[in-house]
Specification:
single chain; globular; seven-stranded mixed beta sheet; alpha/beta; binds NADP nicotinamide-adenine-dinucleotide phosphate; seven-stranded parallel beta sheet; 346 residues; 20% strand
Length: 346
C-alpha cells in the first residue's frame, strides 16, 4: 500500500484524481485545499470511502514524509515552489502543471512568461506521455512532468504518422485544439462565465499557446531532433469536458491510406488506452475515461494528412495520465484504477 498526497485537490483535475485514486490500491493520506480546509472529502466526492478532510497546503507540506508520492494538481508557479521542497524531503512527485515539461529556462521565459530557476530539474524530469516514453527504470525517477491536455492529444494523433514516414517532418503542421471549459480550471473569470461561453465558439492564444513548444519537443525527441514546426490554435467550446486536436500536415511521397492505417496499428497495437478508429473521433465516447481515440485520412487532392485525437481533458489529459505514470513507478499494471469509465461529473 503506497501513501500518496494530492496538492490542489479542490481543482478540476485534483478532484478527478481523487475519483481515480478512490478506485486504486494506493492510499491517499493527505489532500490540500485552502478554500475547503476542514471539510470532509466525502462532502465533495460522495463515493470517497475513508474519513479524510482537506487541509491547508502548508500543513500538508509540513507533514509530507520521505517515501510518499505527491501529485501536484496546482498552477505552474505553485508546482515550481512545491516540487523542489517535496523532492528534498524525499518524496517522489507527479506534477500535472507545465512547470517541468519544457527543456530550458529560455523556453519558460518565452512561453510561460517567467524565468525557470531549476534547469537541473528540467533535465531530470521524466515526461510522462506513457505511450511514447514508458518508464523503464522506476527507481531512477523522482519527478514526472505529466503532459498537457492538448499536447497529449496532438502527440497521440501525429507521432505515428511522422515516425512511420507518412507525414513530412520538414513541413509545418497546422494544429487546431478544441476544449471544454474545465480545461481552463475552476477559477472565476469573466470570459469563462456562462453568458460568455454558451452558444459561442472562441479561438484563444492563437500562435502563442504554451503547449506549442511542448508538442514540438515531444516530436523532436521521437524524431531524434528533426522536429516539425507546429502552428497551434486553441478554441474554447461550450461544453464542460472533452477535447479534440485536429492536425494537418503534408503527406510524404510514399503515404497511402494503408501506410497511415498501419502506422496507427503498429504504434498502438499494445496500448491499453489508445484506440485507432475508422472514422473521425468524437469527445462523448471517451468522456469520463482514460481512453484516447485517433484517426487520420489522406486527402489525395492536396496530399495533406488530416489527423485527429479525442480525449477527456481531465482524465487522459490530466488525472488519468498521472495515474498511468504512478502505476509504472509502482510496477503495477498500467490500467490499475483506470479501467472502464471514471464516474462522470465535475
Ligand atoms: N483542467 C485541465 O483540463 C488540465 C489538464 C491538464 C493539466 N492541467 C494542469 O493542472 C493544474 C491544475 O489545473 P486545474 O484546471 O485543476 O486548476 P483549478 O481547477 O484552477 O484548481 C487549482 C488548484 O490549485 C490549488 N492552489 C491554488 N493556489 C495554491 C497554492 N498556493 N498552493 C497549493 N495549491 C494551490 C487550488 O486550491 P484552493 O483554491 O482550494 O486553495 C486548486 O485546488 C494546472 O497546472 C493545469 O495547467 C489542467
Amino acid at each position: 500500500m503506497q501513501d500518496v498526497l494530492v496538492f490542489g485537490a479542490s481543482g478540476y483535475s485534483g478532484l478527478e484524481l481523487l475519483r481515480v485514486l478512490n478506485r486504486h490500491p494506493a492510499r491517499v493520506v493527505g489532500v490540500s485545499s485552502s478554500k475547503w480546509r476542514g471539510e470532509p472529502v466525502r462532502d465533495r466526492v460522495p463515493e470517497w470511502s475513508e474519513g479524510l478532510a482537506f487541509r491547508d497546503h502548508d500543513a500538508l507540506l509540513a507533514d509530507a514524509r520521505a517515501g510518499q508520492f505527491a501529485f501536484l494538481a496546482t498552477p505552474a508557479d505553485v508546482s515550481l515552489e512545491l516540487a523542489p521542497t517535496l523532492l528534498e524531503k524525499g518524496l517522489r512527485v507527479l506534477d500535472l502543471s507545465g512547470a517541468f515539461r519544457l527543456e530550458s529556462s529560455q523556453d519558460y521565459q518565452s512561453w510561460y512568461g517567467f524565468s525557470h530557476p531549476r534547469e537541473d530539474l528540467l533535465a531530470e524530469a521524466h515526461y510522462g506521455l506513457f505511450e511514447w516514453f514508458p518508464i523503464r527504470d522506476p527507481d531512477q525517477i523522482r519527478l514526472v512532468a505529466v503532459p498537457g491536455c492538448y499536447a497529449t492529444a496532438a502527440a497521440l494523433a501525429v507521432a505515428p504518422l511522422l515516425m512511420h514516414g507518412a507525414m513530412d517532418p520538414a513541413r509545418p503542421i497546422m494544429m487546431d485544439g478544441k476544449s471544454g471549459t474545465t480545461g481552463a480550471g475552476r477559477k472565476a473569470d469573466e470570459r469563462l462565465s456562462f453568458s460568455e461561453v454558451a452558444e459561442n465558439l472562441r479561438p484563444y492564444r492563437v500562435g502563442k499557446h504554451q503547449h506549442t513548444p511542448e508538442i514540438e519537443r515531444t516530436l523532436g525527441r521521437l524524431l531524434r531532433g528533426h522536429s516539425p514546426r507546429v502552428s497551434f490554435a486553441a478554441h474554447l467550446v461550450p461544453m464542460r469536458r472533452g477535447l479534440i486536436v485536429s492536425a494537418y500536415g503534408s503527406a510524404t511521397e510514399g503515404a497511402t491510406g494503408t501506410v497511415i492505417e498501419s502506422a496507427y496499428a503498429r504504434a498502438y497495437e499494445h496500448s491499453c488506452f489508445v484506440r485507432p478508429l475508422k472514422e473521425p473521433p468524437e469527445t462523448l465516447p471517451v468522456r469520463g475515461s482514460n481512453f484516447a481515440t485517433v484517426f487520420a485520412v489522406l486527402d489525395e487532392r492536396t496530399r495533406t494528412i488530416s489527423a485527429f485525437a479525442a480525449i477527456d481533458n481531465l482524465v487522459k489529459g490530466a488525472a488519468g495520465q498521472a495515474v498511468q505514470n504512478l502505476n509504472a513507478l509502482l510496477r503495477l499494471p498500467e490500467d490499475t484504477g483506470l479501467r472502464g469509465f471514471i464516474r462522470e461529473g465535475l
